[in-house]
Amino acid sequence: MLNIALFGPPGAGKGTQSEFLIKKYNLFYISTGDILRKELAEETKLGLEAKSIIAQGGLVSDEIIVQIIEKTIKSNPNVNGFLFDGFPRTLVQAYILEGLMIKLNTKLDLLISIEVPQEESVKRLLYRGKTSGRLDDNETVIRNRLKEYDNKTLPVLNFFKERGNYVAVKGLQEINEVTQDLITIINEEVSKKHLNIVLFGFPGSGRGSLGKAIAEKYDLEFISTGDMLDDEIHKNTPMGDRIKTIYENGQLVPDEIVIQLLEDKIKHSKDAKGFIFKGYPRTLVQSYILDGMLKKHNSHINKIIELKVDTLELIRRLDQRSQTPQRMPYDSSTEKIVKRLQEHKDKTLPVIEKYKEVHDVAEVNGMDSFHEVMERISGEIENSFKSLN
């Protein structure tokens, strides 16, 4: 998802640039004035609250505005992101927007300010007044509007400068030059985004083979915690010796070890376009660990895919695997297979339900051939790539 706030004094050309950006990047345009008028016209609950305040000569509160913005965002799940125009206008609203983005498991990627000197703004707006006939485009009103913009906007700009996502664009250039600067800035931001996928499915659903094939096809880093633990053992590292001892004692590897391996893997995979996680997270605790770890690296989960395979088919596949070199310890008997499937149901299905609250979990039929299932997953992933470009 790509979220941008576009700033600039009156006459900076935000309208022209906004129209271009929402088409190029498939963004939903959020103007607080527009969405408020929509709520008023449709006489929604929020619209009626706002109408009552306006009728009494008051200003619509930030509390109502943020609810309308949240409603607008949630009502448009298929766009690639949002372009905010006219919000946040104040320091308080900057904090509000930051909190709302956190709640919605996203963030404001860029605040772009189209900077134009005051005298140039006055010149442009006076010219507009002559051609449009707008009564408010006279010099006294214009200078008051510009003064108000400076007074309210400077604290907002400083807020985002501190967070490192403020970028200024020279607005004195030709329109197409300003547009090109905006494209360069936004494309650079898009290039930083990872596509992170969690591949869920019961043992026997094909997560390992499909995950590796998907990683190779889309230049993603395949992360299997089981593979990483085994690799430490094979390399005879101190951590590997510890893991081996834990295995020999029939214990589960503690999260503190897995965290170190995951952290190291993510930190040293800077050139990867993203990650596909198989076998992690298995528990609710691990899901919080992964979310926090990705956030630390300015990233987050983009896509959840759940492979759906009938229980009897899972048992058949795992029984077949028990006759091959790829067999797992729990493949040795039907009783152990059923116990492992029950464990997955008890521990991992709640993780999927948690992610459904904040993600679109794609359920993919895993009953058919490898090629057919691969095509289905590829379709889901390619839709996710589109949302990053």
Protein model, in words:
With 389 residues, the chain is α/β, with parallel strands linked by helices. It has two domains: 191 residues, Rossmann fold, CATH 3.40.50.300; 192 residues, 3-Layer(aba) Sandwich (Rossmann fold). The strands form two sheets. It has a five-stranded parallel beta sheet, sandwiched between helices.
Looking at the overall shape, the CATH architecture of the largest domain is: 3-Layer(aba) Sandwich
According to CATH, the fold-level topology of the largest domain is Rossmann fold
Portion of residues in beta strands equals 5-15%
Structural class: alpha/beta
Helix share bin: 55-70%
How many structural domains does the protein architecture include? Answer: 2
Task: Chart the SSEs and their pairings.
Blueprint lengths: L1 E6 L6 H11 L2 E5 H11 L2 H11 L6 H13 L6 E5 L5 H13 L6 E6 L2 H15 L6 H25 L2 E5 L4 H18 L2 E6 L6 H12 L2 E4 H10 L3 H11 L6 H13 L6 E5 L5 H13 L6 E6 L2 H11 L12 H14 L1 H8 L4 E5 L4 H17 L3
Parallel strand pairs: 1-3, 1-4, 2-3, 4-5, 6-8, 6-9, 7-8, 9-10
Helix pairs in contact: 1-8, 2-3, 2-4, 6-7, 10-11, 12-13
Summary keywords:
389 residues, alpha/beta, Rossmann fold, 5-stranded parallel beta sheet, 17 helices, 10 strands
In short:
The protein is of the alpha/beta class and 389 residues long. The protein contains 17 helices and ten strands. It starts with a strand and ends with a helix.
